[in-house]
Amino acid sequence: MTMKALYVGIDRPGTTSRNRRLTLERLLPGWEHSHVDTAVPFDHCSRLSRSIAFRLKTGPALRAINASLLLHVEQEKTHYDIVWVDKAVFFYPSTIRRLRQLAGRLIHYTPDTAFYENRSRHFASSIELYDFVVTTKSFEIDQYSSLIPKNRLIVTTQGYDQMVHRPLHTPAEKRSGVAFAGLAERDRFEKVELLLDNGIPVRVAGPGWERFSAKHSKNPQYQFAKSFLSGDEYVDFISSARFGLGLLSKRFPELHTTRTFEIPACGTALITERNEETESYFAPDEAVFHSSPEELIRRLKELEENPNELVKISKAGRARVEKEGRSYDEIFRGLLKALELI
C-alpha cells in the first residue's frame, strides 16, 4: 500500500519552507505527496488583513488559511501516514484537531521562535495534538516542556540546502569586504556602521534597509542589493564575498541562525559571535569568531592582509558543515529515522 504524506506550509520559491518540503519528498521516494501552500490564501487577503494576522493572530487572513487547508483535506478524502505542519501560528485548534483525525503521525516544525514574536495562542492551545514538535531554538526548551512531555520535543539545528547553497565563485573571483543578507535591526545597523567607519566594504540585502541605505548612499564602501534575494541570487550574493556576516537577532536570545550554516556552505568565511552553540559547530580555524567590536575589526583586517589564511578558513568551514551533516537532507533524514518513518 502506498504511503501518503501531506506538507502544510509556505511554498513560495526561494523560501526555506519550500526547501524543507522538497527535502522530505526526496527522502520519502515512492510515497504519495501532496501539499497545501499557505501563502496563496494569505497573499490574496488585503494588506490590512495580513497586518492584523501578524499582530493579533486573528481576522480574515487566518480564516482564509484555515479554510484553504480544510478544503484540501476534505477534497482528498484520505488518511495520511504523516502530516507535516510548518509554522502553525495561524492554524486554529479546530483545524489541527481535524488533521489529527486524518494523520498517523502529526508533526510540527518551526525554524523560528514560538514564544517570542511568533507567539500564537492558537499554537499553544493545539500543541498537545502533535505527536512530535521540532524546534531549532534551544533557549525555548523550557517553554515547550511546560506544554508537552519532553519525549515529544525534538531539538535540532538550522541547516542549509545542499541543492542550493554551494560555492559559485573561486577565491580569486571574490569581492573584498563583507556581505550580509537579512532583516534590518538596530544592532545590525550598528555593526554595519562599525565596519564602514573602519574602511571595510559592506554589501547588504534584505527588508528594512531603505532608510539606512539612503543615509549611506554616497559612501563608496556601501552597497544595497535589494530587499529580497532567493535561490541562486542569494547564493551568488554570499558566495561572491570574502566574508559573510552571520548576525544573530537581539530581539530574542538567538544562538545560531540559518546563515550560520548557509554562509560556509557557499564557500565564504563566516563571521559570527562566540557563544556556546557557534563554538560547538566550528573550530577557531573554521570561522571568524569575535567577542567585541575591536576583535571583529582586527580579525577582518588581519585576514584581508593574509588571503591564504582566509581561503583556509573558508574551505575548512565548508568541510565542517558537510562533515557534521548540517544540510537539510541529513538533518531531516535523522528526524525521519527518529520518527521511524525510514
CATH topology of the largest domain: Rossmann fold
Structural class: alpha/beta
Q: How many distinct folded domains?
A: 2
Rg (C-alpha, Å)? 21 Å
Profile the largest sheet: 6 strands, parallel
CATH class of the largest domain: Alpha Beta
Summed over residues and divided by their number, the pLDDT gives a mean of 96
Amount of beta strand: 15-25%
Side-by-side strand order of the widest sheet: 2-1-3-4-5-6
The total of helices stands at 15
Q: Helix and strand succession?
A: EHEHHHEHEHEHEEHEHEHEHEHEHHH
**Gap between N and C termini:** 16 Å
**What shape does the CA trace take?**
globular
Helix content estimate: 40-55%
| CATH architecture descriptor name of the largest domain | 3-Layer(aba) Sandwich
CATH H level, superfamily name of the largest domain: Glycogen Phosphorylase B
What key phrases describe this protein's structure?
Rossmann fold; 2 domains; 342 residues; single chain; 6-stranded parallel β-sheet; alpha/beta
